[in-house]
Description:
By secondary structure, the chain is α+β, with helices and mostly antiparallel strands.
Amino acid sequence: MTDRYITIALFGADSREGELVAGTRTDAIIVLSIKKDTGAVKLLSVDRDTLIELQVGTQKEYKQAGVAYYLGGPEGGISMLNQTLDLAITDYVTVNFEGLSTIIDALGGVTLTVDEAEKDFINTHIFDTGTWAAVADEKPEFLYETGVVQATGKQAMAYSRNRFTPFTKTDGTQVLAGIARTERQRVVLKQMLSKIKEAKLSDVLRVAERVKKSETPIISTSLSRIEILDILKLYKKLQVGESTLFPAEREEADIVQCGFSVIPVDLKSSVVQAHNYLYDEESYQVSSEVVKLQEKLSEIFKQHSYRRPDVLQR
Length: 314
């Protein structure tokens, strides 16, 4: 089934100094699926605070999903996704703060819809994404309008990190905290893919060349030049539809020795839904490893969690 799809793990590194390897936390974890014959694009966010099982040295420990990349780099992040969601991902792309901003600027910016609270967040955090943004003679890229705006790379970067103001979905419902952040991350990524689809091949190659010439490391990938060119052959066919979040149903609590965590209410169901979404596998049967992990996570939640009044405000 999955041989008809290209699947890539996308990591957004919480990096201000060019770090792209182990020792870097990931703000964004997204599974990208492209159906080869139609160009249908699926984007599945994995909440960075999802409680998962990690191999740490000779022992298994339970940590948030974002810790996997910190401990094991991109390979650790891929292993976490494969183990938790029954996937077989082999390739990744990691981009840091400067990388995302550079790519968006090279594409000519992205179109976002922002309200007053989101605009204020962008302007307050426009410079807190790293030393690369705080050049003394750089003109601040403040946003002065609300509604539909053409955002620069730094503005879009700040927007995608916002978990402090509500996000209004297309159906009018509002989500908060970490869920709001993952929604904004996918909005930005969708806009980037739309700009790529509209561009000429020469413009897409120009964007790639600009990234390549960066003075500091801003992007890392396991994809070879040939594999990248094969993917580029599909870029005019890209059809970006609805995106979604894993786990589908969640509990939020503080876990002893782990801190704030997202616990899948029904991991098996969430994995089945993920496969149905990514690969149209309606009757996917989860592995025994996922069954065991669900049992362990349920036990941890019952025995080692405690709730605080502000837990949903994280």
